[in-house]
């Protein structure tokens, strides 16, 4: 597989960063893995994705392409903005910002070609260069007089015409310009997504980075999850508990015996239409490690109560099975 084809298979442009390659691969795997995808083409597609990933990995990632965790670097160094080429920028978002959309202020510097000299750093005048008198070369006479060497004139670079240093860029050919733009981030962007933002300062290519959240986990398939401890007794008595959601703390009713709760429409936006998916809360009932004598007595009463339902059935079956078993010890 050619390297260009490998990047294309992963849906990336040549020169994507290591983080982007890994994110693209993970996403494709979650979509095409034959365990999840039962279509006839899944296996073939999965093999191509893995071949492409291996090919890109072996070729080595492009040096200088931003890795996932050097966010400061891109903002600090001015970036060359050749006309038409977008300025690469990283945007770090919280999960809430990514899910609901937000406005972000981009600040930075771009290095543009000097418009006054078209990037040359100088202006060519109508007169001949007076250092080389229009010859383009200068002659250096050696001390013994009869031998001389020639060199290209450093004043006109051999072009024979006089030059004037551009005062727009002090001869550098490029000018650094500070920018500050407010961009709208649409709802539902994911880690390693690349957004195009066309702003007055030139087009931007925004590389999304999602910060890890203290409560939420966003799965590769876009499912938003949270695992939280709940008081075991509150769980047994179907109490209300507070759960974190993308829009803040919310009340949720526990249901004895149930660990997984699906909050409809409270998850991450999915698909192009941006409808919110479900949010899955997994509760882990926690019981106190030590109990008072009074609590122990109450629990004793509860566990003495005959069991009903599936547990009662199980216990009856277990006793019946034990009674019907040949008693090995008495026979011998
Ligand atoms: Zn000259
Ligand atoms: Zn200039």
Explain how this protein is built.
The protein has 9 helices and 18 strands. It has 332 residues and is an alpha+beta fold. The strands form 7 sheets. It has a 4-stranded mixed beta sheet with strand order 11-12-18-15. The chain starts with a helix and ends with a helix. It has helices at 3-9, 18-32, 42-59, 71-76, 95-100, 232-236, 293-304, 309-324, 328-331; strands at residues 79-80, 87-93, 102-113, 122-128, 137-141, 148-152, 161-165, 174-185, 194-199, 202-210, 217-218, 224-231, 240-245, 248-253, 260-263, 269-270, 275-276, 279-286. Helix content is 27%, strand content 33%. Strand 16 (269-270) and strand 17 form a beta hairpin. One zinc ion (ZN) binds next to loops.
What's the helix count? 9
What does the overall shape look like?
A: elongated
Bound molecules: zinc ion
What is the terminal-to-terminal distance?
73 Å
- Indicate the mean pLDDT: 83
Strand arrangement across the biggest beta sheet: 11-12-18-15
Counting helices, strands and paired strands, the structural category is: alpha+beta
Report on the biggest sheet.
4 strands, mixed
Low-confidence blocks of residues: 64-77
Question: Mind telling me the C-alpha Rg?
Answer: 35 Å
Order of helices and strands: HHHHEEHEEEEEEEEEEHEEEEEEHHH
| Residue share in β-strands | 25-35%
Total beta-strand segments: 18
Share of helix among residues?
25-40%
